Structures are given as structure tokens and as C-alpha cells.
UniProtKB/TrEMBL annotation:
It comes from Poecilia mexicana. Residues 83-215, 219-350, 353-476, 480-612 form the FAS1 domain. One of its GO terms (cellular component) is extracellular space. It holds the Pfam family Fasciclin. GO terms for biological process: cell adhesion; extracellular matrix organization. Residues 34-79 form the EMI domain. This is Periostin, osteoblast specific factor a.
Length: 719
């Protein structure tokens, strides 16, 4: 608790920066080692060690925090380091090579004198890692080259880490050349992408920050670098065709993952040529390599996800001292600093989903579907110049039963292939989608799910250059029977159907509509004798109230229910049902539903083995109460003497037919007009009009696709 209180004070400090917070937290982590000790982590396979907030699998080192020293025989670092001039401070922070070079280049006199300087001093290891030829050139001309190089590491005023803001540019003491500073939320501070590994060492005439590499002056933009490097000519050409080159020459904060020519040579022959004429696709490919922020290699943490200019994301991580992109070690050269960002050279071309054909988007979890589409010869309908959508089921749904009949399997597969590109954002409740085989599939939109028939989507919808892919939890089977036909063919709902007929409600199971029906099996009525059933049938008002409590408008399937949450469904009787999904099963009014999601063309049927009844609806007759008590065990039914059920007119439920007036049915279909470009058209077919007396007209929204453009239309339907 004390630790949390301390951290809260630290993180609320107005003057502290992300770097300062990391150092302070590091001090807290090492408090058992004595006063003023900081905990550091060392990167495996390197000499690099950094202050950090956690050490999951890394070696922990303990050193004196910046500005403190050890004393013989005493625990921790109890002594304050002496404040010397900048030259002497270089020795104090163990930047001896930078100190020696200051001597050799005649810089020593300047940094020992009065003034205020900030020195970004490369560590000894940083000098050792410098290209030997470049280092030799500096040492061969100490009065000019080395002197100028050291001056580029200096600013003529004091600059503490808390003063260093992300994206800041400061002027160096070499020809007023710019130094580019980034200060990241994880506490990393970089100077031209060199990381500050020991900061804020105060001197009498300034401050010293130790950095992990030697920095060089920056003169050009990312555009300048692309145009000057022969090994990037292929990518440079793609950038030009995509119309992105000017952007890369403007001021900004960019990170570019630039594929080399060898990376393009690895692509499938003809791929680039095939997309050069498609400007949106080539632009998507190029901008997928571009981030709208500067991400130096030293600031990237494993598993970091960044949004690209293309709009989708890439994952950048670490593999020892190297970078990975989307989990693959592909970075050849990192941290090429430009005036408007940083470039990392990679040996693979990154291809976003939007630059792939839809068939290429099928993932491992849907590979069975992809393989079967090829094996059944259905790929001819999925050419690169055709727009389509794949509804790809997970592998587990392809059971031996499904795979046993090739003709049935072909039909199943075609039910998962739509003729148009239908992205997730284009779907709406009640929409009809046409499959390759001409079947119509219904779309249902719920609070936490999007479903097509009884199959719901899982996360991971993708859009390719010629269509879309949605991953489905189960197989899609279009309904081909009404609710009445389903129940009648089953044979286990004879009593329920008989009661519906007696109540004058049988047509409710046959007519057009969208209903959720909780159908009691014959087993639910097994406690009743013939006399009990006759008594129930004799009171039509009571019977209608009971039966209509099993109907709700709208189609609610198991996958559309939010798990472990009670969903209230208004019934045609008026009282609500309580529906809850848990552990992949559903209950209605606490009654288990043994079989769910029987899809009908006019709704969905859920099977129950109990008759449902509203808990707050009393009974006014003793004989009827006795019958209902035999039927309904899960609640205690109240008796209120003289209570009568409300009259429910059939005219509010059962549709009546008016001959001769056509209605317009909205269906998205594909046609091929002159010029053979695929478009979509709303099919207008004459139907018999139905209406519900006493209801207001409703309006449904449909999407019309003509020549690739979407138009929202409002169609009034009279019932």
C-alpha cells in the first residue's frame, strides 16, 4: 500500500517526465539494496541496460542512481556525486572515450569554461560499435571532423529530460544543425533515435546525458533518402505511383518500413504489375508501411501495435537487439533518421488485407473451408476481377456428417459465398443477402453480435481488394419451411398445434413475419388428461393469453444473446419473457431450452418442455387454476377470484389479405449490364399485400448498390 501511495505521488508530479518516473520507480524497486540504488534490466545478448518498471524474464542489475556514489563499507549509494564541469562529469559517468576525444579535438577547454551546455555523450560501447572506417576518419582529423562531430552532440543551453518533449527539435552547436528528440510514454528518450541510458548528470556548466550510440547530422527528408538509395528503387517506384511521395517530403513525424529491392523479388511473379493499375490498392500497400509517428527502435516494446496510414495495424516487437514486424524478424537496418521521421529497412514487403484477394484472407482457423472451395471447383466464381464475400466457418463445423455427401457439401459451401462485397459496416438488421446459388440469407444485428441465419460472426472480419471475409461460428443453412411446417413435420408438437388451431392462432405459424417462438413439446402437456385439455380449449381468452406468451416479434437466436445477461422479450400477449444465455445454452423464465435455433422462413423456434406463463398474471377460476398447476411447476400461480383475461383480438395478430395491390420486396441481387461490370440491383417482385389492422406503417432501410455506389433508400411497408 505504501508503494502504491508513493507511486501515485510520483505519477501526479507536475514537473516529472516519463523518463523521470521510470527512474524513480526503478529506485523504488531497488530500495532493499540500500539508499539511492536503481534497478536496471539488461537486454539479453547485448551490453545495454536500462531503467525499467518491471523485469519479467530479464536479468536485474543494481547500480547507483544518477548523481549518487558508493562509499566503502556502506550499503547502497549514500554519497552525492561531486558537481564538476562538463569535462570532468564525462569521466564521472564513465564516458571516458568521449572525454578523451574532447581532449584530442581541443574541445576540452570549451567544456571546462563558463557557459551552459548540454552534452549527449556516447558511451564507450557506442564508440566501439561505430563503423571502424568512420571512426578512423574522425581520429585522423581531430581538429575538424572529430571536433565537429562532438559539437553536433552539444546544445548551448541546459536541457533536462523533463524539458525534452516528444517531437522536439533543438539546435546543435555544429552549424546550427537540428537534433531530433522523442520522449515516449514508456520513459524512453531518444536523440536522433539514440537512447539516453544515463540522464540528467548535473555539471557546474551544464548537464550530461549518456546515449547508446554516436549520432550524425540529418539533412534530408524520407523522400530524399528514398530517391537517393538504389536498393529502394522498387519501393520508390511504388510510392510514386501511389501518389505518396510528396507527403514523405513534407514536415511531419513518420516511421517508414521500407522494403528493399530484394524484398520485392520475393513476391509472387506478376503481383506488383497486377496492382499498378489499381490506384487504391497500390496506395494501400504503400501506406501500410507508413506510421504517422516516429518509432525509434529503442522505444519499441515487444508486442506494440501501431495503426498504419492505410488504416489497419501492424505489430512491432523485439527479438534481442533486432526488430520484428507482425512477428517476423525482417528488419535489415534500423533507425535511419530523416528530418521528418525515421526509416527501417526490411527484407519483406508488407501486404495489407486490402491489397489481397479475398481468398488469400482465409486464415488457419477457416482453412478447411478454403480447401473445400478449391476441391469442389468453386474457385472459378471467385476471380480477382469479381466482387464477392466469403462467410468462412470455423474448421470444427465440418464434421464427418457434413463431409459425407459431396452434393450436399457443395450446396453448403455455396451458401457461404455471396455475390457482392458486403463489409461489416454495410450490414443491417433484416437485410437479405444473395448467395452464389441464389439463396437469400437474413441478417440479424444484436447488441453484441452480428448473425446470418443461425450462424454468428466472430471477430476478425477482413476486407480484401475485391471483397470481404467474415468468420462464422457455425454453418449457414437457409430456412425452407414455415414455423408451422417445421413443427408439424417434427411430430412432437401435436398438442401445441391443436391448441393453436382451437385458439384461432394457427395462421400465426404460417404467415409472413419474423417471430421468436417458444414451442412446448407434447411432453410439456403429459400431466393433463383429456378433460383438462377440453377445459383449456373451452376458454379461448385464457388459451390465447397462454399461447401468445410463447411468441415475440423479432428473431432472437442463441448466438445473439449477450452472455450471462437477462434479456427481456416483449411477447404478443404483452407480458415480457426473461431470456438468458449461459454456458452455450439458453433459459427462458428459468426454464431450460433443450433445442434452440430451429430456423423458419418466418422466424425461429426454440423448443421447451414446459408451458410458459407470466408470474404476475393471476387466474380467476379454480378449475383452470388446477389445470395450470399441473402444467406449470416452475412458478406459483396466483389466484384472484373473479379475474378475467384480457381480450386479444385476432385482427391485431393474424394478417388479412387484400387482393390486387402489389408490394415491393427488397432483395439485393447481382446483374451484369452492358459493359459486363458487376453491379447490384433491387429486385421488384409483385406479392400479395398483407396488413395488420390497427397498426401504423413501418419503414425499413435498404441498401442499393449501383455501379459501385451505395444509396440508402427508405421503403414504406403497409401491414
Amino acid at each position: 500500500l505504501k508503494l502504491l501511495l508513493i507511486l501515485n505521488i510520483i505519477y501526479r508530479s507536475v514537473d516529472s517526465s516519463a523518463y523521470d518516473k521510470i527512474v524513480t520507480h526503478s529506485r523504488i524497486r531497488a530500495r532493499k539494496e540500500g539508499p539511492n540504488v536503481c534497478a536496471l534490466q539488461q537486454v539479453e545478448g547485448t551490453k545495454k541496460k536500462y531503467f525499467s518498471t518491471f523485469f519479467p524474464t530479464l536479468e536485474i542489475l543494481y547500480e547507483c542512481c544518477p548523481g549518487y556514489m558508493k562509499l566503502d563499507g556502506m550499503k547502497g549509494c549514500p554519497a552525492v556525486a561531486p558537481i564538476e564541469n562538463v569535462y570532468d562529469t564525462l569521466g564521472l559517468v564513465k564516458a571516458e572515450t568521449t572525454q578523451r576525444y574532447s581532449d584530442m579535438s581541443k574541445l576540452r577547454q570549451e567544456i571546462e569554461s563558463t557557459g551552459t551546455f548540454t552534452v549527449f555523450a556516447p558511451s564507450n560501447e557506442a564508440w566501439d560499435e561505430l563503423n571502424p572506417t568512420a571512426r578512423a576518419a574522425l581520429e585522423d582529423n581531430v581538429n575538424i571532423e572529430l571536433f565537429n562531430a562532438l559539437h553536433y552532440h552539444m546544445v548551448n543551453h541546459r536541457l533536462m529530460t523533463k524539458d525534452m518533449k516528444n517531437g522536439m527539435t533543438v539546435t546543435s552547436m555544429y552549424n546550427d544543425q537540428a537534433i531530433f528528440i522523442n520522449h515516449y510514454p514508456n520513459g524512453v528518450v531518444t536523440v536522433n533515435c539514440a537512447r539516453i541510458i544515463h540522464g540528467n548528470q548535473i555539471a557546474t556548466n551544464g548537464v550530461v546525458h549518456v546515449i547508446d550510440r554516436v549520432i550524425r547530422s540529418v539533412t534530408g527528408t524520407i523522400k530524399d533518402y528514398l530517391e537517393s538509395e538504389e536498393e529502394l528503387s522498387s519501393f520508390n517506384n511504388a510510392v510514386f505511383i501511389a501518389g505518396v511521395m510528396d507527403k514523405l517530403g513534407q514536415p511531419g513525424q513518420f516511421t517508414l518500413f521500407a522494403p528493399t529491392n530484394e524484398a520485392f523479388d520475393k513476391l509472387t511473379p506478376g503481383f506488383m504489375e497486377s496492382i499498378f493499375e489499381n490506384e487504391p490498392v497500390i496506395k494501400a500497400l504503400v501506406t501500410y508501411h507508413l506510421l504517422n509517428s516516429v518509432q525509434c527502435a529503442e522505444a519499441i516494446m515487444a508486442g506494440s501495435v501501431y495503426e498504419t496510414e492505410e488504416g489497419s495495424t501492424i505489430e512491432i516487437g523485439c527479438d534481442g537487439d533486432s526488430l520484428t514486424v507482425n512477428g517476423i524478424k525482417m528488419v535489415l537496418k534500423k533507425d535511419i533518421v530523416a528530418s521528418n521521421g525515421v526509416i527501417h529497412l526490411i527484407d519483406q514487403v508488407l501486404i495489407p488485407d486490402s491489397a489481397k484477394e479475398v481468398r488469400e484472407l482465409v486464415g488457419k482457423s477457416q482453412s478447411t473451408f478454403g480447401d473445400l472451395v478449391s476441391e469442389m471447383g468453386l474457385t472459378s466464381s471467385l476471380s480477382s476481377d469479381t466482387q464477392y464475400t466469403l462467410l468462412a466457418p470455423l474448421n470444427a463445423v465440418f464434421t464427418d456428417e457434413v463431409m459425407a455427401d459431396d452434393e450436399y457439401l457443395r450446396i453448403i459451401l455455396q451458401n457461404h459465398m455471396l455475390k457482392l462485397k458486403i463489409s461489416l459496416s454495410m450490414l443491417f438488421n433484416g437485410q437479405l443477402l444473395e448467395t452464389l446459388s441464389g439463396q437469400l440469407l437474413r441478417v440479424f444485428i444484436y447488441r453484441t453480435a452480428v448473425c446470418i441465419e443461425s450462424a454468428c460472426m466472430v471477430r476478425g472480419s477482413k476486407e480484401g481488394m475485391n471483397g470481404a471475409l467474415h468468420v462464422m461460428t457455425s454453418l449457414i443453412k437457409p430456412a425452407d419451411k414455415t414455423a408451422f411446417e417445421l413443427l408439424d413435420a417434427d411430430g412432437n408438437f401435436k398438442i401445441f398445434l391443436s391448441l393453436m388451431e382451437t385458439a384461432g392462432l394457427e395462421d400465426l405459424l404460417k404467415q409472413n413475419g419474423s417471430y421468436t417462438i417458444f414451442a412446448p413439446t407434447d411432453e410439456a402437456f403429459e400431466a393433463l388428461g383429456a378433460d383438462d385439455l377440453d377445459l383449456l380449449k373451452g376458454d379461448v381468452k385464457a388459451l390465447r393469453n397462454i399461447l401468445l406468451y410463447h411468441f415475440s416479434e423479432g428473431i432472437i437466436i442463441n448466438g445473439g444473446l449477450e452472455a450471462k445477461v437477462t434479456n427481456l422479450l416483449k411477447t404478443l400477449q404483452g407480458k415480457p419473457l426473461q431470456l438468458k444465455s449461459e454456458n452455450n445454452s439458453i433459459r427462458v423464465n428459468s426454464v431450460e431450452i433443450p433445442k434452440s435455433d430451429l430456423m423458419a422462413i418466418n422466424g425461429v423456434v426454440h423448443v421447451v418442455k414446459n408451458v410458459l406463463y407470466p408470474a404476475d398474471l393471476p387466474v380467476g377460476r379454480q378449475d383452470l387454476l388446477l389445470v395450470l398447476q399441473k402444467l406449470i411447476k416452475y412458478i406459483e400461480i396466483k389466484f384472484v377470484s373473479g379475474f378475467t383475461y384480457a381480450e386479444i383480438p385476432l385482427t391485431f395478430i393474424i394478417t388479412t389479405v387484400i387482393e390486387g395491390k402489389p408490394s415491393i420486396k427488397q432483395v439485393t441481387r447481382v446483374i451484369k449490364p452492358a459493359g459486363s461490370k458487376v453491379v447490384a440491383e433491387v429486385d421488384q417482385s409483385t406479392k400479395t399485400v398483407t396488413r395488420v389492422i390497427g397498426r401504423q406503417p413501418s419503414m425499413s432501410k435498404v441498401t442499393r448498390i449501383i455501379g459501385g455506389k451505395l444509396k440508402n433508400m427508405c421503403i414504406w411497408k403497409m401491414y
